[in-house]
Amino acid sequence: MAKDPGPGPARRASDRGRYGRLNRERVLGAALRLVDREGLSALSMRRLGAELGVEAMALYRYAASKDALLDGLVEALHAELEDRLTAGEAADAWRAELRRVALATYEVCLDHPQVVPLLSTRMLAVPLARRPRATLRHHERVLALFEAAGFGADGSARLFRAFTGWVLGYVSVELQAMVDNPQEAESGFRLGLHHMDPQELPRLRATAPALADRAGPRDLTDGLDALVDGFTRAE
Prior knowledge:
It is built from ten helices and two strands. With 235 residues, it is an all-alpha fold.
C-alpha cells in the first residue's frame, strides 16, 4: 500500500490574472485605477485581487501589507509625474523648469485626486530613505534645480521645504470638498451656505462661492514665483 504523501507544501497562489502575469507595475496600476474610481476606502488586498482576477494572497509578493500598497500608490503617482516630465521638453532656466515641475505635479494630482492625501500622510509615516524610488527621484530632481541656481545645502533645504509645502498645499486647497448638495441649482444652497451663521461667519459666507471655483495653474505659478523671489532676495 502506497504511503500517504500528506498535504505537501502550501499551494502557491497564482499570479496570472485576467490581464496576464502580474508584476509590480501592473498591480500598482490596477490599485491606482481602483482608487481613482472608488476612493481609498475601497482599496484592500481582496478587492484589488478581484480587480486583477487573482487571489489576494498573490498580491503579497508585490506589496507586503496594506501600508506597502498605499506607499505603492504614492510611487505610482510619482512615476507618472516622472514620465510626464521626461516626455516634455525641459526648460533652459532653472526657475522655468521649477514652474514646469510644479505644473506637472498639479496636473497629475488633479488626475488622481483620491491619492493626493497620501502625499502628505505617507510622508508623515515613512522615513526619507524608505520612500519609493520614484518619490526620491522627484526630490532629487527638485534639489538639482536649486543646486544649479547656486543654492548651497542649507538654502536648497529651505527652498525645497517651501516649494513642497506650497505645491501640495495649493493642490489640497484646489481639491477640498465644497459642494454640500450637488442637486441644488442655486449656488448658495449647493454650497450649503444656509448652514453657516451669517453673524459669526460673514466673510466665509461671502468668499465661499469664489473658493468653490478652482483657481487653476496661473495662481500656482504666480505664488511659486513670489516664494522663490523671497528666497533669492534672502540669499
